[in-house]
Design a protein that fits this description.
single chain, about 475 residues, alpha+beta, Uridine Diphospho-n-acetylenolpyruvylglucosamine Reductase, domain 2, Uridine Diphospho-n-acetylenolpyruvylglucosamine Reductase, domain 3, Alpha-Beta Plaits, 4 domains, eight-stranded antiparallel sheet, six-stranded antiparallel sheet, 18 helices, 18 strands, globular, binds flavin-adenine dinucleotide
């Protein structure tokens, strides 16, 4: 009997499939990272199923790749070394909405759309929601450091996690934060020794499989409004963003992003063709406010003053022609870009300090020069402090996949040189991460400790390469 079958034979056959048609779904995510080919898929119903798979996979040295919605753009779910895919979307129960503690406890396969709908009647929401909210899972977002709505106000998904339940490669189940205490449950992330929760956030399933997540709840804002600000240069816009962040005027900003000249031109001239091109700003910042109306209006006035002080002006045309629609209609971004119908879009995300924004955009300009065959786009997403910088290259999947991979790898190197750090690491950033020698050596030691057979998501974060396992997967 082959090794994969030994892992799955102890499970209820209803949660296992080795049907080649089913397996097509599990080859890849939305990235340029090459697809992989798993021998079987398991859709666990609870943590005991997960523990049974990991325990036996460790014994049999079978690679296990973990998948939520499969919407990531870093190849984390792609089963490069074959083996099994663990599809967490079957674990999709909302376990507890505890308004007294201000915490919601969910299984990892819950989609953001379902969770936010469930919380609405309680007047509550969660802190961070990615643009892919209708399809992305909470487990995938936790493991891939989600950003988006809420980042300007709360920073990152990790900041919103109270604690986790995790199954380790040995099959051992742990609960982190206050829930490690036998009676306490989830209400406190820090306090008892070091923060073990953080090891699994952004971990791309290299150290364990998250089987429950506790998140902070927040009151839904009663009033929302968007505003845009235009600047003559990216440097002036960076000064403005830095001033807003330093004064903590992001406290009522749920989403904020910055757009370069090409985006402004295409959106504004597309919507209002008779606009004079020379009147367009070189950089726009859009902010989506939410809270009590008088407080929002108060902060908007302060922000408008900071905008003028840094040489900018309110720019309602970009708000009308693009930003307001982006924020009001969940699927607008996909529909507008048409990414998945005609071509694909290689996305690369990094983190950067706000003053590094001009250097980030210089790196994008260099990519445009060096890889003119692709249409490149760039945007920054505001955090409470610092930024996330997204780069997109539109390519034809049938003809340009390999070239797009090369260009994306070149982009990772350029971004590191520009002072950015990997974000949404998966496999895309593995090479760069492995170059951060001392940091990566510690990660490798932890990997060895948690997953000595390197069965869990080998290749992610540049960890767990196991030559034996590679040889074995050829004959699985
Ligand atoms: C067009 C587009 C727009 C996007 N916009 C955003 C955005 O605004 N903000 C943002 O943050 N991201 C964005 N993304 C990326 C992606 O949608 C998010 O990161 C999302 O949160 C991933 O969730 P998922 O369920 O699809 O994860 P998956 O792709 O299934 O998995 C992501 C990673 O997490 C691991 N993983 C999944 N579940 C678990 C688990 N239970 N335990 C341990 N590890 C696990 C996987 O192995 C993988 O490494 C975008 C992607 C696309 C294609």
């Amino acid at each position: 009997m082959n090794a994969v079958r030994k892992v799955t034979e102890t499970l209820d056959p209803a949660v296992v499939s080795d049907n080649p048609i089913d397996l097509l779904t599990y080859q890849r995510d939305c990235s340029v990272s090459p697809p992989g080919h798993a021998q079987a898929m398991v859709r666990p119903r609870d943590k005991d199923d997960v523990a049974a798979v990991l325990r036996e996979a460790t014994r049999q040295q079978v690679p296990v790749y973990v998948r939520g919605g499969g919407t990531m753009y870093a190849g984390g779910v792609n089963p490069h070394q074959g083996g099994l895919v663990l599809d967490l979307t079957g674990m999709n129960r909302i376990l507890d909405i505890d308004l007294a503690r201000g915490v919601v406890l969910i299984e990892p396969g819950v989609r953001f759309g379902a969770l936010t709908q469930m919380l609405k009647p309680h007047g509550q929401t969660i802190g961070i929601i990615p643009v892919t909210g209708p399809t992305a899972t909470i487990g995938g977002a936790a493991s891939a450091h989600a950003l988006g709505t809420g980042s300007a106000r709360f920073q990152s998904f990790a900041d919103e996690v109270v604690g986790l339940e995790v199954v380790l490669p040995s099959g051992q189940v742990i609960r982190t934060g206050s829930a490690a205490g036998p009676k306490a449950e989830y209400f406190h992330r820090f306090g008892m020794g070091p923060d073990l929760t953080g090891l699994f956030l952004g971990g791309d399933a290299t150290f364990g499989v998250i089987t429950a997540i506790a998140l902070w709840l927040h009151p839904l804002p009663k009033f929302r409004d968007t505003q845009c600000y235009g600047f003559a240069s990216a440097a002036a816009a960076a000064n403005f963003i830095g001033a807003v962040q330093a004064r903590e005027l992001t406290r009522l900003v749920w989403y904020g992003s910055g757009y370069e000249a090409g985006t402004i031109k295409s959106r504004v001239l597309g919507a209002v063709p008779d606009t004079a091109p020379e009147s367009l700003p070189q950089f726009c910042v859009g902010l989506d406010f939410g809270g009590d109306e008088p407080m929002v209006r108060h902060d908007q006035q302060l922000i408008a003053t900071l905008c003028a002080d840094t040489g900018g002006r309110l720019y309602p045309l970009f708000n009308e022609s693009y930003f307001r629609h982006l924020r009001n209609e969940e699927i607008y971004w996909y529909g507008y870009a048409g990414y998945f119908s005609r071509s694909r879009c290689a996305i690369l995300m990094s983190s950067l300090a706000t003053p590094s924004m001009p250097a980030f955009l210089t790196a994008v300009a260099q990519l445009r020069t060096e890889y003119p065959q692709f249409l490149w786009g760039a945007a920054v997403v505001l955090c409470r402090r610092g930024l996330h910088g997204g780069i997109m290259a539109f390519y034809d999947e049938a003809r340009e996949w390999e070239a797009a991979q090369d260009a994306t790898q070149a982009a990772t190197a350029l971004l590191v040189k520009a002072g950015c750090t990997p974000y949404k690491t998966g496999k895309l950033w593995a090479e760069q991460l492995a170059g951060f020698t001392q940091y990566h050596e510690v990660l490798q030691s932890l990997k060895q400790l948690f997953d000595p057979q390197a069965i869990l998501s080998p290749g992610n974060l540049g960890l767990g390469h196991n030559a034996n396992l590679e040889k074995k997967s050829d004959v699985l």
